[in-house]
Amino acid sequence: MAYRVRPCRSHEELAQAWGAIGHYFGWVPNPEEVERFTKLLPAERTHAAFDGKKLVAGAGAFTFDLTIPGPVAVPCAGVTAVGTLPTHRRRGLLTRMMRAQLDDVRERGEPIAALFASEETIYGRYGYGLASLRQEMRLPRGRSALRVGTPPRSGAVRLVDNDEALRAFPRLYERVRRTTPGFLSRSRDWWELRRLRDDPERRSPGAGPLNYALLERGGRPAGYALYRIAQQEEGGHWQRRLRVIEALGLGFPATREVWRFLLEIDQVDEILAWLLPTDHPLMHIVARPDSLDLHTKTGLWVRLVDVGAALSARGYAGDGRVTFELQDSFCPWNTGMWTLAEGAAKRSRRRPDVRLDAPALGATYLGGFSFAQLARAGLVEEARRGGLARADALFRTDRAPWCPEIF
Known about the structure:
Layout: E1 3-7, H1 11-22, H2 31-37, E2 46-51, E3 54-68, E4 72-84, H3 93-107, E5 112-115, E6 129-130, E7 133-140, E8 156-160, H4 162-177, H5 188-195, E9 211-217, E10 220-234, E11 237-249, H6 252-263, E12 270-276, H7 282-285, E13 295-298, E14 301-304, H8 307-313, E15 321-327, E16 336-341, E17 344-347, E18 354-357, H9 358-365, H10 371-376, E19 381-382, H11 387-395
Parallel strand pairs: 4-5, 11-12, 15-18
Antiparallel strand pairs: 1-2, 2-3, 3-4, 5-14, 6-14, 7-12, 7-13, 8-9, 9-10, 10-11, 15-16, 16-17, 18-19
């Protein structure tokens, strides 16, 4: 029987589409969850594959604005909930959904798509490149002292309720988002239903409530932290872990004060964080950097759907010129020669400086990786002497891209 791929048309189809990935995590979305989730991801943005009348695979895309170097925000499709039931794997359904989804993204005028990959070997074939890294931290509380010479405390932190957090935190996040490549826009529904919501029945075993901590400096909000404390019996002893979900500050002094608060919470044995950027100042805040026990993980994957629009939207570090010979087999409208000059990318007949494919261009787009790095890995070719250096001079950024939330 022929398979069909189309957008979902009802809540029932949405539940089945999300259930395709939920199957692997033991999650079956209930009607309340579907109703809530459709405020963030409408039916028409979830594609599904059908075997006859049975829905067997799904792939969704949130509507975001993504901050890119400049800094400037551009429309971005946030790919999510991609899954195929185990009964229908290896039949080309994922490729067909990716085809339908990227065609839809292009028609909507979103020049970029991005995702977090639960399986890193999948998305390169569809033109996604690893564009950022994240770090996980595991710090013993007994080794969390701040470095010698840290200035005295400036500002005060207080715990607030959900309502006050909803008033204060989005404004702070938005100020950080505007200057940080990799950050994604958040609607009020997103804050209410996803970031600040705390359902007791969905907490992991031993986890306490979600805490909302607000930093004020000079009487004004300057930073915040979302965290939980979880306790578990291990070997006859209770172990308490502070799990930092998100911690942001307006500039370094505020960031330091938010983390000073978290690092000095008593009665915990360990402090954990999962989504730190590779250049987070925490390494320079604590007295014992080695005790952070940092582990590097993959972060955001980026796909340029409209190369001309995406490259022209980005800010650059200079006024030079570079020509790319791009190969994009999954979105062939991007294939060809592109010259980037004076901040705009246009079709070109010039001799190329750099040869690369779509995943490599996605990897360099946010500034997380240089063209020279990718060339050393055999993923980019220098077609003209000095081409890598010219490309890197233009794409250089002064901070690592950071996406603080997996979607």
